[in-house]
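Subject: sequence -> structure tokens, single chain

Hey, anyone have a minute? Need the predicted structure for the following. Not urgent.
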Amino acid sequence: MPPSAAPAPSDRVAERAPTAEELLGPALHEEVVRHFTAKPDAPSAAVVRHQVRECLRYLYLVSRHPDRLGGLFLPVEQDIDEIWHYLILQTREYRELCEQRLPGGHFIHHRSISYDAYQEAPGREAAAEEALRWLPLYTAAFGPFDADALPHWTIVRFLHDELRMSLEEIAGPAGEAPTPDGPAARVRDHV
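Reply:
Had a minute. Here:
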């Protein structure tokens, strides 16, 4: 697949994206946090809140950019996918979230596929390129990745932990296409 083009100028100056609590509503937000903190060996409520935030950021981006992100492999860790699964099971609230609260106004479907199976279809390099499409869209909508988001986004964690890139290097100029020596080039060197 060809690398994604730079976001349109209107994407660079985006209005403030809603918070996870604003998108879910206070009651459902607290229900999700309670559910995941009650599990055996659960992380702290603060960590779960960050997981919920990143799940809603993922859904926000898919909703806002279906033409660029629709059908791509989930670039977040399993903990985020589990929160998405929980939200899907709250069918009425999930439909309202997708159709009335997220910017695209359309239902976001979910299909499970293993990373190995996905990687076989487009190949490793294409999978890496697709994962990198999220970076400029994320930073344009939410600002740079922070330490609380880092553990939940697979490509960001790879760039930070394996390629030793700082969060500032990963973010690059907000909303701009990756530079030739930026994350995409460094990932290609390791694929």
